[in-house]
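dude i think i finally got it to work??
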Amino acid sequence: MSSGASTWLHGQRKVELLAIADKVGLKDYDSLKKPELEAALDDHMRANQTALSKDSSLQAFFKRVGASPSKKDVANTESKTPRPRRSIKAKEDLEPTDASDLETSNKALVTRTPRTSISFASNVPLPPSPAVVANQIDRQTAKVRSSIQNLWTNSGIVESSDELRDRLSNTTTIESIGIFLELYGMQRDVLPLKYLAFLPASKILGTPEIPLKVPDLFVLLSSDFWLTFSLWLATSVLMPMTFSYFFNLPLKAKHGHVKHAKNEQASTPYDPLTFNISKALITWLVYAKGIRAGGWVNGESVAKLEAAFPGGHQGVLIGTSIGALTSIYEAVLKK
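look at this
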């Protein structure tokens, strides 16, 4: 591979070498590596120089062959030249004496590395570069992110949360929460719970004995329950709703006159601001000032409700204040 012809083959690409091999009739060259293919072409074309030298596309190769001695000429010259006697050197002469000699011998070994070693090294798979690893990690991360996003979208949590937000973002819901808190406080004193049974303790689960409680429905047969419940229903729901229906300022402002709204569906049949103001006023008169309305209001029922409400009647006043501010804010946003 050190001759000029071999240098010409070495300068060709593998695709061009395959085309030359097909043209010159070389066999079994498909599995050869480029260095092996160069050596095989060099031997085959030198052996068939008479037949192939007429091809114009191979003239560059054979010109170099003519400029360099062929293997046969070199063999004849070596056979005619007498071989000098081999001189036997001592062991000390053969061993390298310093670092420069050692480096020279290593270079010689490298230059004499056989072609099979180069072929074996080219077949050994090399580890991927950091850029390839980083790209692979980015692709896997993108796949995981896309899967999580699709799972989140298909779960319906976003739509459910938006629907819940729409239902809670109004004055009616806030007032309903206040009424629910009042009912919860009333249930503890007006409709108390009683023990029904006990769940036995479990040694396997490590749970203690758990009592089961249910509302005492026999209280519904007593007059005290209905007096107390009727008082709460009148002061917290019915009377405020009556005032808010007749004193409906947003309805008047929208239609210009109440008579024009008879044949139209009113969007706000109850004024939330009037509801909260009237409820706060009634609560203050009945529970704080002790108004009994000529004996229509039972004092024991007032005391029970005062103790049952979370925070007493002051808690009800705070709830009506929050409802009034919310209704004002909602009216401002609608303008």
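The longest strand covers residues 193-199.
im so relieved honestly
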